Every structure is written in C-alpha cells, then in structure tokens.
Amino acid sequence: MTTVRVAILSFAHMHAYSYADVLARMEGVDLIAVADPDAARRNELRKRYPDVPAWFANHRELLATVSCDAAIIASENVHHASLALDAFAAGLHVLCEKPIAVTVSDAVQMIEAARRADRILMTAFPVRFSPAIVYARQAIANGQLGRIIGAATSNHGSMPGGWFVMPDLAGGGAVIDHTVHVVDLLRWLFNCEVEEVYAEYANRLHPDIPCEDVGLLSFTMTNGAIITLDTSWSRCKTYPIWGDVKLEIRGERGRLSLDCFPLQVSRYDDRRARIESFALSDNLDALMIAEFISAIREKRQPAVTGEDGLRALEVALAAYRSGQEKRPVRVAEIRAA
What we know:
By secondary structure, the protein is of the alpha/beta class.
C-alpha cells in the first residue's frame, strides 16, 4: 500500500487538532508538514506533534519545498479559497474545512481549479458519516417514512470567540458557522435541494461580539418538505461546543428522531471552568478522513464533494440576504448573483 503524504495548512480552526490526531494513528498515511502563520501556535504544535518533520510559517514555502499528495485546509474561512487554489496548483488533493468558502465565486473557483488539476476537492462534513445519519438515509430511501413532510433541526454550540466572531474572517457569525452542516445532511438524506429560505438572526446573547449569535431559518426543499433550523450559539460557556446536531423528521407514515452525538463522556476541569465532552461512538472525523484517503487511492470522487460544500454555502448566503432584506430568498438568486 502506497503511503499518502498529507500536509495541514493552518491550525486556525480547532478541528485541525482532531484531524492531525487521526492522521497520526492511520496506517499508510504520514502527516509530513504543517504550515501555520501564527508563531506561538506553531511552537505549541511542534511540541504536540513532534513526529512531524517539516514546519513552515508560509504555506507557499511548504508547497514549493515538500513533496506531498494532499492538504487539509483548516484556516480562517476567508482564506479557504486562496489556500486551496495554491494547493491545486501544486498538484495536491484537498480536504477543506466548512464552509467551503465565504462567497459563491470563491467556491466555484475552487471547484473549477480541482477539475482542471484532476484532483479531489472534499468538503469537511463529518456528520455525513454518523451511523445514525446513514441509517436514516436508508430508511427514507426505502420509503419507511413515506413522503417527507418536514423537519425541525438544530445545530447549537457555545460562542467560540476568536476569529469565528469576526465577519471579515469568518464570513458571518452563527448562521454561516452552523447552517452548512445541517443543510448538507438534509440534502443527502432527502436527495433534493433547498429551494427558498427565510431567516431571522440577531446578536442577543453576547453583545460584545460584532456578529449574530442566534439565528432561526425556515426553508422549503424541492421535495416539498418544510424545514426549520436553529443555528444559535446559545449554549453556556461550560456546555460542550460540539455535539448538538439534532433532526426531528416527519413523514406521512412515520417520524424519525436523530441525535448525531448521543454517546459521550464528560470531563469537568475547574482550572479552566470548562466541561468537555468526547464521543464514545464512532469518530466521525476519522471516518471522514478515511474516505478522503480512500478516494485518493482509488482515484475517484469522495462521498462529499466541493459541489456539496457550494450548495450548503448558497443556503447560508441566502439566509443572510433574507435577514437583511426581510423577505424569503430563493437559492437560485444567490446562484445567479
């Protein structure tokens, strides 16, 4: 089995630590280089991952000097496109953190660059690999719920702080942070697209941050289903950030309740006044990265593509336009802009 050599471009997103931990345990995969412009963070990373042989402040220097097969991008959202375009120009496959980009034009450029380079662009939607979601998709496809009428969904968390609350780096706040995961799940579960979005969002819980921290979306899908999605950063500081992707799906013949992170162990840390929870079930990041590596080896498209990332981004951007203009917005308006 040929070893797949992987580089991580930026650890700005906390998911990068999980990805690096997964890569360190995978057979036939080497994490061979890291680029991160933050010197203090880079120094800490070198202590945590002493087996990584090459470290860079500039990703272009990494791409020019290290021979690798793939890159995982976990930078601030606004930099996803430029990092991906440079990686494709260097001949690398790319797994990009969500949202795929902050504008439709950036996402389209990434998809086209991947196609020209004949390389993979995979969007980091690990919840797709949840056993609960896989089961639900099979049940819906088999007609066990009958025609889908609607769903009430949520993706909550505590306010992450840092660049996540800076619209010029994140592309927004809670809406862009938490909409894309659930939209991707719904598209995959129902095998259809979001058609129209109405959104209300505001800053209600954390007045010192310059973006929205609560949001509620209502949208229709092309299968006729009516969906609500709560995207709020409404958890307190000591509540686990991750682990709240819930869907209540109603069909003509049945109802399906999904909690994608039900099995957890909690650690209480008085020194940091923090509670952290860890899944006891499947590591979704590990399943996602295994799919990325398999797609590279098998020279095929991954289960989650760049186009999937674009479709989810379009819904988030439609939500922002809806909130600004106080009207329902068709996703086709965003696509045509």
